[in-house]
Design goal:
Structural class of chain A: alpha/beta
Helix content of chain A: 25-40%
Number of domains of chain A: 2
Strand content of chain B: under 5%
Shape of chain B: globular
Oligomer: heterodimer
Strand content of chain A: 5-15%
Number of strands of chain A: 7
Low-confidence stretches of chain A: none
CATH topology of the largest domain in chain A: Rossmann fold
Number of helices of chain B: 13
Chain lengths: 241, 308
């Protein structure tokens, strides 16, 4: 197959894909170039590609039953004593996190440490106001964390919008989009308040109520509907881990 | 049923338990020491046990393919195999549990075995497709080329001096002459010690992991059970390196207390040097190892050849 033929064929296929995308009934959340479509492989054969699912698994999360009795208590104890926080500051509250690691507050005492990637961490501090643009990144990071995972919402903005309650670009109630375990109220809460929040999270985990990931999996459709209501350029699979 | 098989199996389990507990415990102590130097209280010394239990209890395990499954498995295989070939105690009485395959192992085999884990990790990290992993792996392997040279020179010097490549042979040589290799052949010891700084990957040689710039490098896409396996393997490997060093340079240890004292003092060298150091760039790190450590290693070999 010559190069010219290939170009013609490619253009034809692209037109077909565009026509498909425009005639679709429901509004698609995916960009046209990431839609499922047919392309020509280097050897001339036609193959189907679905770019988004090449990189992500599209499977939905499932509810994971906790272990029974003493085993679960022991595991919860270990989980409570080892809180690995994802180093992702979403708003102005992230300025309160670095002092936690300094000699003055030293959160390491309580088994808290910062981890650089979502894969290794199990707690997520939403620090302050959350713009819609950041919410999308937060959702992706949250879904990449292996469960059991916990969310600490820092500052008033995550509870009711705080001083940004009528802003066009921020969300008001974080709880509508992601399951929150602990709220720390204030604008801004001091690092001591954050330490108290960690203590509260430990209590919750030890009592076996730190089931954020399972709540998210149970009410998955509801959370997704809420998220898609505010995020206009979705362009990712429904669940990306 | 032959009794010796059961003793071998129990000895194998005892050795692994000892290596794991001591390795993880040392990891916790290192965090404590670091914290005290930085004027912090620091995590409790048993913090790393919590971390490992928590990671093993993660319910989701995300992987990107078979090689990512195999990477941590290779790492722990290499650690355990190396452990089996290291004489942990040199006495006769206490030796029973820790004998394993000591007398069959020699230094040259161990040199290859200790690198195998890193290569497995490199393959596993490569599969994840994370650019940070790829950069971390390339940095780690480059740095390995750096510190392997003074390390091999140091080993060649002491192997020539004792005229054996077996680790038990080296211990016997030291015991027979009633001396330690670090005094017999000091230049080789210094070269080996400098190479060890790189082997433990503490600052300034934490180039491949670099949490501030590389998001923990090769491990960045490994979470949950994979990370737990890597931490276990790392703890065992740290124990292996320390015991090997004590065996070949410090005359081995006749009982467990002596072993802990010697290995802990030795461990503090890279740790304390690391606490007060920033991080090298990759080429600075390699240039460092190919500079004075290699020169001292060559001098050590010449010393053994011409003077002794």
């Amino acid at each position: 197959m010559s190069e010219l033929d290939m170009n013609d064929k490619m253009n034809e296929l692209l037109k077909k894909a565009e026509a498909n995308a425009s005639t679709k009934e429901e509004k698609s959340f995916v960009r046209p170039e990431d839609e499922e479509r047919e392309v020509i492989a280097p050897d001339g054969s036609i193959i189907k590609v679905n770019p988004i699912y090449d990189y992500f698994s599209g499977e939905k999360p499932t509810v994971e039953e906790p272990s029974k009795g003493v085993v679960e208590k022991f595991l919860n104890w270990a989980r409570a004593e080892s809180i690995w926080v994802l180093g992702f500051g979403t708003g102005c509250g992230s300025i309160e996190i670095p002092p936690l690691m300094t000699p003055r507050f030293d959160a390491f005492r309580f088994g808290v440490q910062m981890r650089p990637t979502p894969r290794q961490s199990n707690a997520f501090i939403i620090s302050g106001y959350l713009s819609v643009k950041t919410l999308k990144r937060v959702i992706r990071s949250y879904e990449q964390m292996p469960s059991p995972k916990y969310i600490i919402a820092l500052g008033s903005c995550t509870i009711n919008g705080g001083m940004y309650y009528d802003s066009y670009s921020t969300i008001n109630r974080l709880d509508k989009y992601l399951p929150v375990d602990v709220y720390i109220a204030g604008c801004m809460p001091r690092p001591e308040a954050l330490l108290a929040g960690f203590m509260k999270l430990k209590e919750i985990i030890k009592s076996g109520n730190g089931e954020g990931a399972n709540i998210y999996a149970e009410n998955f459709d509801e959370y997704k509907a809420n998220q898609k209501k505010v995020i206009k350029d979705w362009n990712m699979p429904d669940y990306n881990w | 049923m032959d009794n010796s098989i059961w003793i071998s199996i129990l000895g194998f389990l005892a050795t692994i338990t000892l290596a794991f507990v001591v390795g993880v415990f040392y990891g916790g102590l290192v965090r404590k020491v670091t914290a005290r130097i930085q004027n912090r209280v620091g995590p409790p010394f048993y913090q790393n046990f919590f971390d490992i239990v928590k990671l093993y209890s993660k319910t989701t395990a995300i992987n990107h393919g078979w090689m990512q499954h195999l990477g941590p498995a290779f790492a722990i295989t290499a650690s355990v195999t190396s452990l089996m070939f290291i004489p942990i105690l040199n006495g006769q009485g206490d030796m029973m549990w820790f004998e394993n395959l000591n007398f069959k192992g020699d230094l040259i085999f161990l040199l290859y075995m200790m690198v195998f884990g890193s290569l497995g990790m490199a393959l596993g990290a490569g599969q994840t497709g994370n650019p940070y992993s790829a950069i971390g792996v390339s940095r780690g392997l480059s740095q390995m080329v750096g510190y392997e040279i003074p390390w091999v020179l140091a080993l060649v010097a002491i192997m020539m001096q004792a005229e054996t490549t077996s680790i038990t042979g080296l211990i016997d040589y030291q015991n027979a002459n009633d001396t330690w290799m670090m005094f017999e052949s000091p230049l080789a010891f210094i070269a080996g010690l400098l190479a060890m700084l790189g082997m433990f990957h503490y600052a300034p040689f934490d180039v491949p992991f670099a949490p501030a710039e590389l998001a923990s490098g090769p491990a960045s896409e490994f979470g949950g059970k994979y990370l737990a396996l890597m931490m276990t393997s790392g703890a065992i490997m740290a124990f292996v390196k320390l015991v090997l060093f004590v065996d070949i340079f410090m005359g081995g240890a006749s009982n467990l207390v002596m072993l802990l004292v010697k290995t802990f003092l030795l461990y503090m060298v890279p740790v304390l040097y690391g606490v007060v150091s920033p991080r090298y760039r990759t080429e600075q790190s390699i240039r460092y190892f190919w500079g004075w450590p290699t020169a001292i290693g060559v001098l050590g070999v010449l010393y053994v050849v011409f003077i002794r």
